[in-house]
Amino acid sequence: MVTEFDTFRIKVGKEDRAKEWMRILNQRKEECIRTLQREKMAMETIFMSERDGRLFLSWFSIQGDNAENVDTSDHEIDKLHCQFWDECIDQTYTLDKFEHVLTLADHNVAKSLTLAAKETQSLGEYSSENEPDIAALVAMNANLIIDEGHTYRLTTKELTDRVHAWLKNGFQYQIFRDQGGQTIGYALWREQPDHIFLRQFFINDAFRRKGLGTQKIQALLDGPWKGWTSIRLEVLDRNDRAQAFWQSLGFVQYARTLELKNA
Q1: Which residues are within 8 A (CB) of 109 and not within 5 positions of it... i.e. 6 or more apart?
Q2: What digits encode the pLDDT tens for the residues 195-209?
Q3: Does residue 116 surpass a pLDDT of 70?
Q4: CB 250: neighbour CB atoms within 10 A?
Q5: Degrees (nearest 5) of the Cα angle 233, 140, 185?
Q6: For residue 231, what is the DSSP state?
Q7: Domains of the chain with bracketed CATH
Q8: How many Å apart are CA 261 and CA 87, to the nearest integer?
């Protein structure tokens, strides 16, 4: 885990643009929070100061190792952030670099920060570069179909085509992995006008009965789903175990789908 505090000088004449930059980040805070997981960023705080008539911005951050860089992000707010950075930051200035010596934090806070910074979670949409993720999604989806008690089975190609179709039509996913890189499970959802539709949620058998399902849903609520007031999902009537799990998290029956077999 990396703890940093860095100070950067703003170019002369770009002070108002830098302040506008900070206003935009504040106004679009929820978008910014949604980008943190790909960077393994547990916490990021920005300070503004003036010294000898010059404006400075300082960043304090706690971040996991081997994180994704912000300039490789596909998020619109990250792209805008990088544009402001190039426009406003004075690259000729030798930045103030501080050596991290000590962090003191309540044990519960420290544990939460460590988990947020170290746990590898991939959050994505459709991209040809995401094929390894798609292969993992397909394998877990096949197990989910069995777990849910569906009567149908799909081939690997059919499952792959279906996952591709979902991702091309606005679904997002998150793959949960532990610190050793082992796959814990995944979630697949789409943002609707007034709610999040959770299409699939799955925890691999080896990681069950450890509270990880509840933990991952809470992480989604605190992360990419933060700000959404309604989360909806579908559960088969005969899947008593899944119904008990979702009800334990506070989900209540919203609608019921009826089917007539017309042989």
Answers
A1: none
A2: 999 999 999 999 999
A3: no
A4: 8
A5: 70
A6: E
A7: 2-115 (3.30.70.100), 120-248 (3.40.630.30)
A8: 63
